[in-house]
Specification:
The complex is a heterodimer of chains A (about 120) and B (about 325). Chain A is an all-alpha fold and about 120 residues long. Chain A contains three helices and no strands. The two termini of chain A are about 45 Å apart. Chain B is mostly helical and about 325 residues long. The chains are: A mainly alpha (about 120), B mainly alpha (about 325). Chains A and B meet through helix 1, helix 2 and helix 3 of A and helix 1, helix 3, helix 6, helix 11 and helix 13 of B.
Chain lengths: ~120, ~325
């Protein structure tokens, strides 16, 4: 099951190149075709017709950081589970027990975050 | 030779996404119209199908507006990174038994990781717009997209566990029909989390028309706006194809060219279900959205994983 990841990645490279140039291509086409009559009103920030009050670049609340932290923790733990899932067919019972312990820790972390109110949107 | 080969497949993938997005818009208009007991587009061409061709020049002829207060460089270039990752993620989809554009042993992980780059692009474009509505939408989209990433990868993990491989072609080859009932919960979690990942209804609070106008792309117009739209439909196509390949056996029971057709049919069914959900359920509130992810989907995905582990050990 252990194999190298160095397959032929030319196809991937070409996908990246094509994916990267497609939008600039359409933008160029649009630039050539579309009208460009700018005036002051048109370049205003859109806020349903009224003048925007105050800058939008403000401090945002801490709740978003809490979710970001939760995400980092859980995403890394999920990534740790992937090699385990691939190697599952060897040493089944031992690996299963290990996994249940690991998931229990994960679930414990979730329960703790839940109890501390980190999952409550305020 | 491989260079030309790869280039052609890259062009084909982008054409699939762009064409698929246009087709998807038409299909969504038809589906949503039927759900609301209307006819939808029917004037131009048979069943209004030429409407989608009329849409492209319309978008090309729209003026490209960069607001005066926006951070111009980021505002202009962030949409590139919204579309690119979705197109690149198509590279690992196993279109038929034994054939994917890129056959790599980390394909499943690649598919989960690469489209996530979109989050950064969305946050950048929303922040660069210098618009209160956009900033709010971008923050909400970020919180939502990173949160639903967790149950989504856990749901896919269930299939990886059964197949014992991260290579999409191996997963499709190892797929058995009895996986369907076993991974049903995982598929539902994947389905819901994918909808949330692409910010579609009922999880479209970051771009809710009634309160945020269009959220993170409120200030975009013309082709820049279209790139967000193409990314959304492209993500829907990619997620449907990948879901059909992993959870429903790809081209099973056929191989070769017929397998591709079967995969596409399965993907279109999943896509139609995604549209059906959007046009049936009301939008979720932000707190419901986050608690649904962390308090329902994530624990459920963990339970599903343990159940499959126990079943596998017992077999």
């Amino acid at each position: 099951m252990v194999e190298s990841v160095t397959a032929d990645h030319t196809v991937l490279l070409m996908f990246i190149i094509v994916g990267a140039i497609f939008v600039p291509l359409t933008l160029t086409a649009s630039h050539l075709l579309a009208p460009s009559k700018h005036d002051e009103r048109k370049l205003d920030t859109y806020e349903c017709g009224s003048e925007p009050i105050g800058p939008p670049w403000v401090q945002f609340r801490v709740g978003y950081y809490v979710y970001a932290l939760l995400f980092v923790v859980f995403d890394i733990e999920t990534v740790f589970l992937y090699p385990w899932a691939v190697a599952f067919d060897r040493m089944v019972v031992f690996v299963l027990a290990e996994m249940i312990v690991f998931i229990a820790i994960l679930a414990g972390g979730l329960a703790y975050a839940w109890k501390e109110g980190a999952l409550r949107w305020r | 030779m491989t260079l030309l080969w790869g280039f052609l497949w890259g062009v084909a993938a982008v054409a699939t996404i762009a064409g698929g997005a246009i087709l998807g818009v038409w299909w969504e208009r038809k589906v949503s119209a039927r759900i609301q007991m209307r006819y939808g587009p029917q004037q131009i061409g048979p069943f209004g199908s030429l409407q989608m061709i009329a849409d492209v020049p319309k978008l090309l002829f729209k003026e490209d507006i960069v607001p005066a207060l926006a951070d111009k460089a980021i505002f202009k270039y962030a949409p590139l990174f919204v579309f690119g990752p979705v197109a690149v993620s198509m590279v690992v989809i196993p279109f038929t038994a034994g054939w994917a554009p890129l056959d790599t042993s980390v394909g499943v992980l690649f598919f989960l990781a690469v489209p996530s780059i979109e989050v950064i692009a969305i946050l950048l474009s929303s922040w660069a717009s210098h618009n209160t509505l956009s900033t709010l939408g971008g923050l909400r989209a970020t919180a939502q997209m990173i949160s639903y990433e967790v149950p989504r990868s856990l749901a896919v993990l269930a299939i990886v566990l059964l197949a014992g491989s991260l290579r999409p072609l191996d997963v499709v080859a190892a797929w058995r029909w009895w996986w369907m009932p076993l991974t049903f919960v995982a598929f539902v979690i994947y389905f819901i989390a994918s909808i949330a990942e692409m910010n579609r209804g009922p999880f479209d609070i970051p771009e809710a028309e009634s309160e945020l106008v269009a959220g993170y792309f409120a200030d975009y117009s013309g082709m820049r706006w279209a790139s967000f739209m193409m990314a959304e439909y492209g993500a829907m196509i990619a997620a449907s194809l990948f879901g059909a390949a992993l959870f429903f056996g790809g081209g099973w029971p056929f191989g070769g060219a017929l397998g591709v057709v079967v995969l596409v049919v399965k993907a279109v069914l999943i896509m139609t279900a995604i549209m059906w959900v959007k046009w049936t359920f009301p939008r979720l509130r932000q707190d419901q959205l986050m608690s649904f992810c962390w308090k329902v989907l994530t624990p459920l995905a963990l339970v599903q994983l343990v159940v499959i582990g126990v079943v596998l050990a017992w077999l």
